[in-house]
Amino acid sequence: MSELARQLPSAAPAVRRVPLAEPNLRGREAEYLRECVESGWVSSIGRFVTDFERALAARVGVPHALSTCNGTTALHLALAALRVGPGDDVVVPDLTFAACANAILYCGARPILVDVRADDLGLDVDLVRRALTPRTRAVLAVHLYGHPCDLSGLLTLCRERRLALVEDVAEALGAEYDGAAAGGFGDVACFSFYGNKVITTGEGGACVTRDAELNQRMTFLRDHGMRKDRRYWHDEVGFNYRLTNLQAAVGLAQIERLDELVEAKRRNARRYLARLAGSGLGLPGESARVRSVFWMFNALLPERLAPRRAELAARLLARGVETRPIFYPLHEMPPYRDFAPVDAAFPVASAVAARGLSLPSATTLGEDDVDYVCDVLLEELERG
Ligand SMILES: *Cc1c(COP(=O)(O)O)cnc(C)c1O
Predict the structure, then answer these.
(1) Position in ligand 1 atom list of the atom nearest CA 193
(2) Model pTM score
(3) Among candidates 377, 146, 145, 348, which has minimal Cα distance to 280?
């Protein structure tokens, strides 16, 4: 505090602020960015792009990683490279971020909405099986809120029915299934590095795959569909979905600290689980085959409080605790309403969406922050 500030009468005590998420840039981010600026390599060519892609591939345990300008373009690129197009159906969970359905629609294909399982909020394989049509080309499986979905069940089904499996790992970098990294199971997996994700590049994304041919096709489509051996010659309509060296510089510094960031998320989750047990809130689990990254820690309000979730959130915010409702089910929103199969019901997605509240999950939180959130939340629940 400055001398002057010390002499002034103290203002009202500032409300403590506990963020839902915030970038954690305490590593070599600034140093790497400076290298970009000083070297002039600020666009999409440069050592950080290749170093970041290599580091990501190594982390997921696959041979190929291709960076993109965000997670949505990663999903679109993956589906386009798989030649998903008009006349095709792609299965997608009803409870997910809208970008999943959008990417399918960008391809001219039809998203088929399927309900999720209550225990991990991932696709329910039995329901997926029932939703398949002769037009189904692919399943877009999401590891929602950092918990891997039923990869073994979905892989078996996709192999049996010759469907492509696309993993959306936007929220689950660092998560594991049967001891292997999420993102290494599907034909292709897509990541996001938006500001609130496990690691960030500001905006950014990536596609990873074991399939060299698919990787080549994604590279081609990402770079305008331009022929490698003939500059400015285009055989197909491609995209410019590249990440910049500046963004990749931040990404490399971030992925160097991935273990630390994941441990911070898991530490927050352990504290929440210990402090909120027995409170009447529904709390997330971690199935035996899985290591979750608890990207966002969600509490499900008791049913009687669900209608007053917004009011509760406002009371929490007034005391500095940021929260966010869980995603709305896709089938409830105008652009996606028509893609629910006629006989489909979404009891799990609807109930979770009505009751769920994401609690502060930033990797920058200390145990005292999580304790403060729990104290405030328990007090406000008590007040009803
Ligand atoms: C964030 C997110 C995306 C989209 O990523 P952007 O980088 O924001 O385009 C896609 N799917 C899921 C599940 C996400 O959470």
Answers:
(1) 7
(2) 0.95
(3) 377
